[in-house]
């Protein structure tokens, strides 16, 4: 069941690929220490100047902007309006009438004042929640729990908040009851959850408060700009210097939940096949038999510390899958922390030769999970260092030797990587020419181009993308589309078209002995060679799969204050052909409508959208169980029908004993549903070319 409650102010993305460090147990920070320091004042002034001078988006620090900063800060602390009272907010707004002038001078009193009140309100709410836990709950009355949001009015008084929390605690209790927990276990778990909330808020130091407020400031400008305090910067340095060991997952905070944002190719999370983008992490345990700790409501950094660990050690995660949106099928996943090697992220290939629409044709598929480049080996002068382009070139040669008739590049779930690799990979399919334009904060436009004559492959080409294809993936797909070199198939991509850099603030204050921290700054934007940006809109496929119809707020489109789509003058380039894909799309749609695999994928997308759009849930147990069962049955029935149509016996991943080989085969078959249809689309194009001189650019450069 979708949960949308509260979150903590430090909203970070944490890549769990580092070894653990030993930390002393934090203690409660006295209120007397939660006041701004001279160092923070200096840092705020420097941040103002850097943002004004170098940020890609030019924003005037006026009263309207300052009011938005205050609103975002309150949203970061209390996004669902379950702590502050309306009178608190009114007082904050009155005290922030001169916030624009205060920000210019680096005055931060209002930010710390708000946080001290916030801590007091958290204590009050937690005390009330614990008192509710001592009472009795009944789940047979017709009552609903509404997921509050930043559009919910602020509570007028404590009595109104009490009622919101009565339903909230009842909802938390019912969610665990639906997961078959005993009453004793539920009360113990929720008591620890609520007490942990207050404890962690009490552990916030002045630097944490400052970072939270400055991030509210930067995120009011643009979502990818953020401030890192000295302690956060130190942890970032440690993570960059250590070997890639861990579970290989990027996490983010969403209200009180830790969400898997993405998994790293070659990492234990991705390889397990049981951890996916959008999943919620509810608990963490160490080793094969360590106790499971409930981490709902924890700060992201604290969850990261629990999941981190040395190579070879085991961490167990309790996961609520996004795919079902149900509160019952919570699963436990055991992962062995391991080193993530470059070869584990490398491109791989296979051949699809069982094409019902084109007997005898072969389509080679190259899966590219990331745009990687071994910069260390390259810097050391190693002539044969690993890179995406080199590996794909080798795979193309192998596939051509196997007699393929067309080539499909699979970029699904590829979150990007090296810009140089996106450029050079494009060069394998075009002769020479521009690949992407980069416009900086001063309006200067530079063009990244392929300057290496010749191509590695000039035959029929298609590129498969999805909603998780981002950044470098979008640059490559956009260039192939703009040149008319091949078909783009799948879903609209992520829409990440901005460039960030990390700035040490001390460089702007010569002689400053205190560490001012660092700023992650958006300083440029990517533009296609046709002139439009990849920002926000991403790359729209030539042929869309039906799952795209259920994408609502996703990727860059879901972020507040994201830079808008815009365009500049096109670069000078020559298209290699014009594509006609109406007939290809029509034939694909007819196949997809009959395909059990696509029926399953579409139903999954529909279920996810259904949960995302849900505004309230019943607090009557019988109704919730019936709803959960309905979703579970819909999810399982479609999957089983598809697998049996493929001649496979469905494997229950939740069973005590699982045939791992059969399970791996099942996952592979599901993962290739879209790739196989993309291959059929490409095969249709090849046959059209052979019969009526159809879309030539699908055929050759």
Q: How would the blueprint of this fold be written?
A:
Blueprint lengths: L13 E2 L22 H17 L8 H15 L8 H10 L3 H7 L3 H25 L10 E3 L11 H21 L4 H20 L3 H16 L4 E3 L1 H12 L3 E2 L2 E6 L2 E7 L4 H5 L7 E7 L6 E2 L5 H8 L6 E7 L10 E6 L1 E2 L8 E5 L10 E5 L7 H5 L8 H14 L4 E5 L8 H8 L6 E8 L4 E6 L10 E5 L6 H12 L3 E4 L7 E7 L13 E10 L15 E2 L37 H13 L1 H17 L3 E3 L2 H25 L14 H12 L1 H20 L3 H4 L2
Parallel strand pairs: 13-14, 14-17, 17-18, 18-21
Antiparallel strand pairs: 1-5, 2-22, 3-20, 4-11, 5-6, 6-7, 7-8, 7-9, 9-10, 12-13, 15-16, 15-20, 19-20
Helix pairs in contact: 2-5, 2-8, 5-6, 5-7, 6-7, 14-15, 16-20, 17-18
Describe this structure in words.
This protein is an alpha+beta fold. The strands form five sheets. Strands 1, 5, 6, 7, 8, 9 and 10 form a seven-stranded antiparallel beta sheet that branches. Strand 17 (461-465), helix 15 and strand 18 form a beta-alpha-beta unit. The model is unreliable at 1-25, 237-244, 324-328 and 694-701 (pLDDT under 50).
């Amino acid at each position: 069941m979708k949960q949308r409650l509260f979150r903590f102010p430090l909203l970070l993305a944490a890549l769990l690929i580092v070894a653990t460090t030993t930390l002393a147990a934090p203690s409660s920070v006295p209120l007397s220490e939660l006041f701004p320091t001279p160092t923070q004042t200096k840092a705020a002034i420097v941040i103002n100047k850097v943002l004004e001078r170098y940020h890609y988006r030019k924003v005037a620090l006026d009263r309207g902007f300052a009011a938005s900063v205050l609103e975002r800060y309150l949203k970061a602390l209390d996004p669902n309006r379950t702590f502050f009272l309306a009178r608190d907010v009114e007082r904050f707004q009155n005290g922030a009438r001169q916030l624009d002038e205060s920000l210019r001078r680096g005055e931060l009193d209002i930010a710390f004042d708000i946080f001290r009140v916030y801590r007091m309100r958290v204590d009050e709410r937690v005390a009330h929640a614990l008192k509710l836990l001592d009472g009795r709950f009944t789940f047979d009355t017709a009552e609903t729990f509404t997921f509050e949001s930043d559009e919910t009015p602020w509570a007028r008084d404590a009595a109104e908040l009490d009622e919101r929390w009565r339903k909230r605690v009842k909802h938390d209790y019912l969610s665990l009851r639906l997961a078959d927990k005993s009453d004793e276990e539920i009360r113990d778990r929720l008591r620890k959850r609520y007490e942990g909330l207050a404890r962690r808020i009490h552990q916030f130091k002045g630097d944490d408060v400052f970072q939270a407020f400055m991030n509210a400031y930067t995120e009011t400008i643009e979502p990818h700009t953020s401030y890192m305090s000295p302690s956060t910067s130190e942890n970032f340095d440690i993570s960059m210097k250590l070997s890639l060991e861990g579970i290989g997952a990027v996490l983010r905070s969403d209200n009180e939940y830790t969400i898997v944002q993405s998994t790293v190719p070659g990492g234990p999370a991705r390889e397990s096949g049981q951890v996916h983008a959008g999943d919620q992490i509810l608990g963490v345990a160490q080793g094969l038999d360590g106790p499971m700790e409930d981490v709902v409501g924890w700060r992201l950094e604290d969850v990261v510390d629990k999941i981190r660990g040395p190579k070879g050690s085991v961490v167990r995660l309790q996961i609520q899958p996004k795919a079902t949106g149900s509160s019952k099928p919570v699963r436990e996943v055991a992962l062995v922390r391991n080193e993530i090697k470059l070869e584990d992220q490398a491109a791989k290939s296979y051949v699809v030769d069982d094409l019902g629409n084109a007997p005898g044709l072969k389509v080679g598929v190259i899966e590219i999970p990331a745009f990687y480049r071994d910069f260390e080996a390259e810097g050391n002068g190693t002539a044969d260092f690993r890179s995406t382009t080199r590996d794909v070139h080798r795979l193309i040669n192998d596939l051509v030797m196997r007699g393929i008739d067309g080539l499909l590049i699979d970029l699904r779930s590829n979150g990007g990587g090296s810009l140089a690799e996106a450029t050079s990979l494009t060069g394998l399919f075009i002769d020479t020419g521009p690949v992407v334009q980069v416009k900086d904060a001063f309006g200067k436009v530079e063009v990244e181009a392929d300057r290496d004559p010749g191509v590695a492959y000039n035959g029929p080409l298609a590129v498969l993308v999805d909603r998780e294809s981002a950044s470098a993936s979008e640059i490559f797909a956009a260039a192939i589309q703009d040149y008319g070199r091949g078909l783009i198939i799948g879903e609209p991509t992520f829409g990440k078209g901005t460039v960030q850099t990390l700035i040490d603030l001390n460089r702007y204050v010569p002689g400053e002995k205190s560490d001012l921290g660092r700023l992650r700054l958006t300083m440029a934007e990517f533009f296609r060679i046709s002139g439009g940006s990849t920002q926000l809109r991403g790359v729209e496929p030539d042929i869309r799969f039906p799952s795209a119809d259920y994408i609502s707020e996703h990727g860059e489109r879901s972020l507040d204050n994201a830079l808008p789509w815009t365009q500049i003058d096109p670069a000078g380039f020559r298209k290699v052909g014009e594509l006609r894909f109406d007939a290809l799309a029509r034939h694909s749609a007819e196949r997809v409508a009959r395909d059990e695999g696509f029926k399953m994928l579409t139903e999954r997308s529909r279920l996810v959208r259904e949960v995302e759009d849900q505004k309230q849930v019943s607090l009557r147990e019988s109704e919730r169980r019936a709803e959960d069962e309905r979703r579970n049955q819909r999810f399982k029935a479609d999957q089983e029908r598809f697998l049996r149509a493929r001649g496979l016996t469905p494997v229950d991943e939740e069973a005590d004993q699982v045939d791992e080989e059969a399970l791996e085969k099942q996952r592979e078959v599901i993962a290739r549903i879209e790739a196989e249809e993309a291959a059929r689309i490409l095969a249709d194009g090849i046959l059209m070319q052979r019969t009526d001189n159809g879309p030539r650019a699908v055929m050759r450069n």
